[in-house]
Amino acid sequence: MNISKNEILDFVSENDIKFIRLAFCDIFGTQKNISITPRALKKAFEQGISFDASAFAGFTKVDASDLLLFPDPSTLSILPWRSFSEGNVIRLYCNIKYPNGTPFEGDGRYLLQNAVKDAIKQNLSCMFGTECEFYIFEDSKILKPYDNAGYFDVAPLDKGENIRRQICITLEEMGIYPESSHHEQGPGQNEIDFKYSDALEAADNFITFKSVVKNIAAMNGLFASFLPKPLCGKPGNGMHINLSLFRNGKNIFQTHTEEGHSVTCENFIAGILYRIREISLFLNTLTNSYARFGEFEAPKYVTWSHQNRSQLIRIPYAQKEMQRMELRSPDPCLNPYIAFTLLIYAGLEGIAKQMPLPEYCNLNLFSAFHEHTKKYEMLPQSLNEAILLAENSSFVQNILPKRIMKSYLSVKQREWETFFSSSDRNKTELDMYFQRY
User: Fold this and answer.
1) Three-state SS for 164?
2) Which DSSP category does 356 fall into?
3) Which of 128, 119, 90 lies closest to 337 in space, CA to CA?
4) CB within 8 A of 45, min separation 6: which ones?
């Protein structure tokens, strides 16, 4: 949405806006906000709104704690569930800056904006579309699914139908347009899919989507969970990322050589495959994330294929043409700004180094024997393994600021130690994560 600051100010005065939420994310992808009144909005655009950044891991030290929020006019959205007879509430995502006006290097939006610019220097635009799964439980204290329906079931067995409808309508009112929604395989599990958009918009929309799901569920007396594996023995919550590359307005995933795929796209995919283990910490961020791998269509090995859903990367065909790549390992608890940043740079590295795409794998990796799978690298099998891979990755260290890396690794190491030393790991995970995610 191309809209100016003055147009935002006019919109606020003409639409009885009583509060403006200035939103941003911490380094773990948790949305934060501060509310201001309309009279403070002009100051926010011109001077920023200060906040104590030392309260957020990885932001700043206590002795240099002030950072400023500058709202991005293009992200204006009314919050339908917060509107009331006495006035309306809007939300604006913010860029974070130092008091001297320079961008804060630990701001995920800033990191992603830089990645997008670096892709544009190569005349490439990376488009992202997400498919996100979540569970609906009867409340936040007991893991009792809202229904016992299965894949693509309908009402009355599917009790989530009306909830999904409310979510989709609310998103449309906010200018975000889901492509489809359905009941997933697990009891009380649902999925909503989105059409591709540019990386920053896709990341902003994903954060909005999670907020809408949580709020609509709560308004219905229910609890929505994005936890990767909330129920043992049941499907986990994945966040499949569909990624395509555009050059001069054309999707080059549709460009083929005599040998098959676009070479540029093959190099891009190869770069992601090469770096996937090192960046898994930022795609699968919880101890609980790694319980999902290797079953119910969640990948375990670093492989790719056409159509085969047991692979890490699937390259589906639409009308016999390659349209996109689908990365199947991430889960919804990631920070989309950091995750998309790392994926873009991994792909760009693959292009720069002309990395060849490895041979495809068409095995059903969920049932294949070890003698067939032993030649493939595995995704990290624990949060601890993912931490070690990220910690020793020069690739990750060159992209993420040192302060972010140090804080991120420190928090995740504490989570791992708490989990590993527990006598009841399932309970420990729920205590650490369930209410938050």
Assistant:
1) helix
2) P
3) 128
4) 5, 8, 9, 70, 71, 73
Convert the pLDDT of each residue in 34-93 to its tens digit.
999 999 999 999 999 999 888 888 786 645 578 999 999 999 999 988 766 667 899 999
In the structure, what pLDDT confidence band is assigned to residue 322 with cuts at 50, 70 and 90? low
Contacts of 177 (CB under 8 A, 6+ apart): 171, 194, 195
Contact yes or no for 46/69 (Cβ under 8 A)? no
pTM as predicted: 0.94
- The Cα 35–Cα 15 span in angstroms is 17
> How far is residue 67's CA from residue 49's CA, in Å, rounded to a whole number?
8
Q: Among 93, 109, 82, 67, which Cα is nearest to 19's?
A: 82
CA distances from 167 to 3, 211, 341 (A): 25, 10, 27
What single-letter amino acid sits at 384?
N
Q: Is the peptide bond before 156 cis (omega within 30 degrees of 0)?
A: yes
Residue 77's contacts (CB-CB under 8 Å, 6 or more residues apart) are: 90, 91, 92, 174, 175, 208
Angle between helices 263-283 and 383-391 (to 10 degrees): 120
